[in-house]
TrEMBL record:
<dbReference type="GO" id="GO:0005737">
    <property type="term" value="C:cytoplasm"/>
</dbReference>
<feature type="domain" description="Aldehyde dehydrogenase">
    <location>
        <begin position="5"/>
        <end position="427"/>
    </location>
</feature>
<dbReference type="Pfam" id="PF00171">
    <property type="entry name" value="Aldedh"/>
</dbReference>
<keyword id="KW-1133">Transmembrane helix</keyword>
<dbReference type="InterPro" id="IPR029510">
    <property type="entry name" value="Ald_DH_CS_GLU"/>
</dbReference>
<dbReference type="InterPro" id="IPR016161">
    <property type="entry name" value="Ald_DH/histidinol_DH"/>
</dbReference>
<dbReference type="GO" id="GO:0004029">
    <property type="term" value="F:aldehyde dehydrogenase (NAD+) activity"/>
</dbReference>
<keyword id="KW-0472">Membrane</keyword>
<feature type="active site">
    <location>
        <position position="211"/>
    </location>
</feature>
<dbReference type="InterPro" id="IPR016162">
    <property type="entry name" value="Ald_DH_N"/>
</dbReference>
<dbReference type="GO" id="GO:0006081">
    <property type="term" value="P:aldehyde metabolic process"/>
</dbReference>
<feature type="transmembrane region" description="Helical">
    <location>
        <begin position="471"/>
        <end position="491"/>
    </location>
</feature>
<dbReference type="InterPro" id="IPR016163">
    <property type="entry name" value="Ald_DH_C"/>
</dbReference>
<protein>
    <recommendedName>
        <fullName>Aldehyde dehydrogenase</fullName>
    </recommendedName>
</protein>
<keyword id="KW-0520">NAD</keyword>
<keyword id="KW-0560">Oxidoreductase</keyword>
<dbReference type="InterPro" id="IPR015590">
    <property type="entry name" value="Aldehyde_DH_dom"/>
</dbReference>
Amino acid sequence: MSPSTEEVVTRARNAFSTGRTKAVAFREQQLKNLLRLYEENAPRLEEALKADLGKHKQESIAMEIGFNSNNIRNTLAELRKWIGPERPPKYFMNMSDEVLIYNDPYGVVLVIGAWNYPLQVSLGPLADAIAAGNCVVLKPSELAPETEKVIAELVPKYLDNDCYQVFRGGPEDTQELLKQRFDYIFFTGSSRIGKLVHAAANEHITPTTLELGGKSPCILDESADIDIAAHRILWGKWVNAGQTCIAPDYLLCNREVGRRFISSAESILRKWYGTDPQKSEDFARIINGNNFKRLSRLLENGKVAIGGKTDEAEKFIQLTVLDDVKDTDPIMQEEIFGPILPIMYVDDVKDAIKYVNQNGKPLALYVFAKNKKVVDLVLKNTSSGGVTVNDTLMHAGVANVPFGGVGSSGMGAYHGKYGFDTFVHKKPILVKNFSSFGEKMSSVRYPPYSESKCKLLVTLMKVRFPFSLKFIPYSLFFAVGLLSAFGLGFVERYYKKKLM
């Protein structure tokens, strides 16, 4: 019989109370164990991803197994530096004090994964939470059943069973889990479910990271290399059959650029998948029948320029380009999350920016242009979770930049150091001493109050260090130069007088 949600959380809370997850050596060992899980079970993980999503081995390694493994290696290399107290700059009022920031683990963390990248967005945040010193309850997605089963089987073999538990179940079980009090919740999934998770978190005032999605726009300017751009846009849309939260959702360009893009895309797709893409082993499948039917309905509206073939038995939808889509069409009313790329025509980049800003802030935005003014115009006049210029998806793979949404596309961020920071509370520490100087400085706050004390207090609060320590070398060079100039002048005057 499976333990209840209350028992799962109580077990994790009891484990955290022992303090063992805070030890650096313990964290490092658990991360090394998780790395071994990937290294020793790669074929099994690849098979599970193939069964759930039809992923090719190369895609599974690049986007899931290898991605998570490299994140752990990076964390292990930096962890001892991240864990240590931070020492922010001190100002005049605290010049004799010690100012620190401790990186405290939150405690018991709930990680709710998604089905589209069932390893990356489940075990990835798990590794970050381990590094930060937390206990974790991991809820993988039941919509990727084979991967869920492998996670539930392997994690207990490699990680501490009390500190890190896998909880399996459907939507009702997740709702019961969310009734428990956690110290932090990390959720990846749709905006609709994200709102429910956030509402449940509010019952306990639990801090939350929401990795959601939205319609990520792709602006294709006439100054771009259209053929290279087409390769990169189609790849970003093709990976995982378009079931990627930062996949380019739709293309914005003028009609001439659109015509050139379609022509190039036809040639590229033949080269990639041959004349019958359904026979290609390189193209993933739709996760389930419900999503297949939803995507098939979206194909009913719009002019098919490329593709359009479907097979319900195989959950196959060909990479399809829809031409001249209108903003009122059904496909523009929701995140597509599939291998369908609509093209909507605009007059210029300003029109594209206007359209993007009329809708919710996307998780990702893409702009293709050689013209730097066009790129700057887009970057300065739009808001999104992240941006890749002249490519797609790739910003999410940069190790030490934050990945996350803004507005309707989510809150919070992770990856690398930002993943560690997500799962720690930045606790400020001020250590005062008992020196007479420090007490003299502080005495202005004590009664009886007076006008002179008030003026002194305001002055002390405004004063900053006159210069940063980093300028000392420059100041020394300046001083040496000044003294040299004076010295040479003195010698010159001395000899002039002697000669006279």
